[in-house]
Design brief:
Elements (H helix, E strand, L loop, with lengths): L3 H8 L3 H8 L7 H14 L5 H8 L4 E6 L5 H16 L3 E6 L4 H13 L4 E4 L6 H10 L3 E4 L9 E5 L1 H14 L5 E5 L5 H16 L9 E3 L4 H13 L6 E4 L2 H13 L9 E5 L13 E4 L2 H16 L11 E4 L2 E3 L12
Parallel strand pairs: 1-2, 1-3, 3-4, 4-5, 5-11, 6-7, 6-8, 8-9, 9-10
Antiparallel strand pairs: 10-12
Helix pairs in contact: 1-2, 1-3, 5-12, 8-9, 10-11
The structure holds alpha-D-ribofuranose.
Length: 339
């Protein structure tokens, strides 16, 4: 088996220099670092991460649990996490909970057993017992995108309430009064906060809240489709729809078109979550854009501070609320093309 001594001899450096390089310790000249790593690769040496972690009491691995790996919203968040992680010599273990609290709980236990240095979680909103255990054990955790009410974890989220308020205000200022809303699950804080923003905008413009045009759905295309079909059947259907996320919006588009209606001429649409390809939809979709990459990058930077003990866990939790922005396209009817 190739040892640090073998590498040191071949590279012409001391064993302690080789050890510092593979333990990310001290400032080693980058050229020398590259030379030593090249020699190590030629000799077929790969550091024993397990032995090193036992010695350092750190694995340089963090667990990331997101709720839907197929949703580009989360892939962008993970990209932000991974870019900061790799720059700081951390690896990530990515877990997909599929919006399933049971699966999320299993993954939290798996990551604990793997002794990750910390976790970043976009939670399903359940598993309070798992989160209390993480807090009791003092395992560094940062919540991204979604909160766990009553927890002391640091949280990096966006201003969902203001984002929804701005979208509904835009509808009203464009002339719409009967604005329906198909939300995601209300146990997820982003959905609950968007509903608060929806109600706040109606109150500001003195439009009564009508629960018959508010449907509590799931962050899924099928949920948007089914709920939109139901809204089109009621006596006085809405002439504008706010979709709780883009998957819901895709279902809304399909249901409206299947009924022979036009967007925005018959029904205007705005969604939460924005992606560049929305400009290619017919009509291009107006959306509340969230800074997904920043959500991830800020979360990882915060987690590193917690792991390095730069914030005693007892300190008051840190909550960062990033701004969203309304990206106006044709689907909201403000560009003079509504009936
Ligand atoms: O698309 C997934 C949704 O759930 C996003 O709006 C995000 O905010 C998350 O809460």
């Amino acid at each position: 088996m190739v040892t640090l001594k073998d590498i040191a001899l071949k590279a012409g450096v001391s064993k302690s220099t080789v050890s510092r390089i593979f333990n990310n310790k001290g400032n080693v000249n980058p050229i020398l670092k590259r030379k030593v790593k090249k020699v190590a690769k030629e000799l077929g040496y790969y550091p024993n991460i397990l032995a090193a972690s036992l010695k350092r009491k750190r694995t340089y691995t963090i667990g990331v649990i997101i709720s839907n790996i197929l949703n580009p919203f989360f892939t962008s968040v993970v990209r932000g996490i991974e870019d900061i992680a790799i720059k700081n010599n951390f690896n990530i273990i990515l877990c997909n909970a599929d919006e399933d609290p049971k699966k999320e709980g299993i993954y939290i236990d798996v990551l604990r057993s793997k002794k990750v240095d910390g976790m970043i979680i976009a939670t399903t909103g359940e598993n309070k017992d798992h989160f209390s255990a993480l807090e009791r054990e003092g395992i560094p955790v940062v919540l991204v995108d979604r909160k766990v009410e009553g927890s002391n974890f640091d949280t990096i989220i966006t201003n969902n309430k203001k984002g929804a308020f701005d979208a509904i205000s835009h509808f009203i200022e464009t002339g719409y009064r009967r604005i329906g809303f198909i939300t995601g699950p209300l146990n997820i804080t982003t959905s609950f906060e968007r509903l608060e923003g929806y109600k706040l905008a109606l109150r500001k413009y003195e439009i009564p809240f009508d629960e018959s045009i508010v449907k509590i759905g799931e962050f899924k295309e099928d949920s948007g489709y089914k709920n939109m079909k139901e809204l089109l059947k009621i006596k006085n259907p809405p002439n504008a729809i706010f979709a709780g996320n883009y998957l819901i919006a895709l279902g809304v588009y399909e249901a409206i078109k299947e009924c022979g209606l036009k967007i925005p001429e018959d029904i205007a649409v705005i969604t939460f979550d924005d992606f560049p390809w929305f400009k290619h939809l017919s009509p291009p979709l107006t959306a509340v854009s969230q800074p997904t990459y920043k959500l991830g990058a800020y979360s990882m930077r915060r987690l590193i501070k917690l792991i390095e003990g730069k914030k005693p866990y007892s300190e008051k939790r840190k909550r960062v609320i990033l701004k969203n922005s309304l990206i106006i396209r044709e689907s909201c009817g403000c560009k003079g093309n509504k009936s």
